[in-house]
Design a protein that fits this description.
This protein is α+β, with helices and mostly antiparallel strands and 500 residues long. The chain has two domains: 20-365, BirA Bifunctional Protein, domain 2 (2-Layer Sandwich), CATH 3.30.930; 378-494, 3-Layer(aba) Sandwich (Rossmann fold), CATH 3.40.50.800. The protein contains 17 helices and 18 strands. β3 (72-74) and β4 form a beta hairpin.
Amino acid sequence: MASDTKPKARLPRGLVDRHGGELAATRAMLEKIRAVYALYGFEALETPAIEYTDALGKFLPDQDRPNEGVFSFQDDDEQWLSLRYDLTAPLARYVAEHFDQLPKPYRSYRAGTVFRNEKPGPGRFRQFMQFDADTVGAPSVAADAEICMMAADTLEAVGIARGDYVIKVNNRKVLDGVLEAIGLGGDDNAGRRLTVLRAIDKLDKVGIDGVRDLLGKGRLDPSGDFTKGAGLETADIDRVSAFVSAGAGLSGLDKLALVVGESQSGRDGLDELRLIGRLVAAAGYDDGRVLIDPSVVRGLEYYTGPVYEAELTFEVKDEDGRPVRFGSVAGGGRYDGLVARFRGEPVPATGFSIGVSRLLHALAYLGKLETEAEIGPVVVLAMDKEPERIADYMKMVAALRANGIRAEMYLGGSGMKAQMKYADKRNAPAVIIQGSNEKAAGEVQIKDLVEGAKIAAGIADNAEYRAARPAQFAVKESEMVDAIRGILERRAAPSLGLAD
């Protein structure tokens, strides 16, 4: 008996298929984000999804096959390549490669898919989209303050109301000062330092007690998975906890001064936060939109100065039905060392990244997502199959397209009833029908599917429906384009506020 060799149609774990409605909503949101970025003077850039692995940054594990956290493979010349983990490291490579030709500061935005070779879970995917904006070549924290203000403007542009979000700002230099104070400075402690950063970064998910566990021996989560901790002593855990719990606002900086002690890095970080606070206040964004908050860390090792997160503050229900804040939808910070890796000289840079899917989810929750199905094409039904008649239908489609109207001829092999069902599934605004009688009269029948559905809803029985032939009318072939345009204009009128 022959074996069944057919492949099984299945989606890999951690990946999703996205349909037309979601893609249309995504495009609409991305355009609003792009418009804000452009308003601030940023220009578009696109980088490839694949980079040489060594270009992606020192945060990758040092292994013979560097495939933990990233998807990697060897080229035919035995060099390691990886799917990009984020959009920042590829930007650093691009700037370093074209440094002499680019204006400095160089301000760019990029939207694209990134890939994480991590365990998938609820809301955690291996492929997702980010939308970044970065300024390279600006040493002043004025660039960081501007990014934070742009983040606020972006959230409002897509529909997040003022008061439903906050842009939280911290400084990694302050945390570096704390880490130096507990003996985790220097390159030899890079691994443990990263573990501490990732522990603090989970504050909003596991709370201060969970963070303390992750700073110590480790944490067993409710699912039974154990995460190994940083192994700090109790006194050091207390110091890191005091840093995280210092409190938001400029008033919390005085408490942080006590925590960082004599660390020059820590003091420099506090000075930068004070300056950001003044700049934000001068522009009027200190009304709750942008806030100094020491709980913001960002988990990646390459951040070197101010770090920030855009957090949505309205409540949603968690998996157990408990009210929780929606949480972070964007974040970023200063990474003065990434471009320097390629050039061997300091190149200051800062930027932030929006999690596109997560922001879409937030807008859907608030009922502000543009989810209306995209208007499909006008469908010309293939009533007759003879070649000369197919040529007639093709001519109609070409005339519609020449006038900027989306249109297609039905290319399947089914009859009229199935063709009408096809047009409904395509969300067609209208169909065009021309049988032999209409052809002889030089006419076409046009059926307005939207208006027809409204009328049909009020008709009692099939006989009445057939007699009414709702929203179907005949026009001369020469008038077809104008008639279709009229249907499309009437459909668009309510969204433009023109309906009666």
